Amino acid sequence: MTIRELAEAFQLRIFTDETTLEQEISGGYACDLLSWVMSHLQTGDIWITVHAHLNVIAVAVLTEAVAILLPEGIEPAANVVAKANEEKIAILGSSSSSFTLCNQIAQLLAKRGE
Questions:
Q1: Which one-letter DSSP state was computed for residue 19?
Q2: SS3 category, 25
């Protein structure tokens, strides 16, 4: 499933350029402790976090995440969006909780894997 397909399926807000939306999502990870994310997130994952600062872009690049998903209506600052665009990392947003997003994404990925 591509980032664009996920965004459309859950009506996610897209903060970054459209050019980042064709990447394939292979899984997901939810965590807010950056050092833990660096050691556990897998290449191709979408990362759900409440952090919306520049360090998340660095962690996403380091771990080869395909996107960052901000829950609960959190919005990134303009400089974070600019850096994400530069690094080709999609940033999406939702008003849903991290728990709800994890459940929905897991169900959708499982359904697509059948």
A1: G
A2: coil
Q: How far is CA 114 from CA 16, 74, 107, 108, in A?
A: 30, 33, 11, 10
CA distance 109 to 57: 24
Structure tokens at 37: 């994310």
Per-residue model confidence (pLDDT) at position 109: 87
pLDDT digits over 72-101, tens only? 999 999 999 999 999 999 999 999 999 999
Which position has the token pair 């999609």?
90
Tell me which long-range contacts 27-34 makes (C-beta under 8 A, separation of at least 24): 27/109, 28/102, 28/105, 28/106, 28/109, 29/65, 30/98, 30/101, 30/102, 34/59
Q: State pTM to two decimals.
A: 0.95
Structure token digits, residue 44 = 């191709």
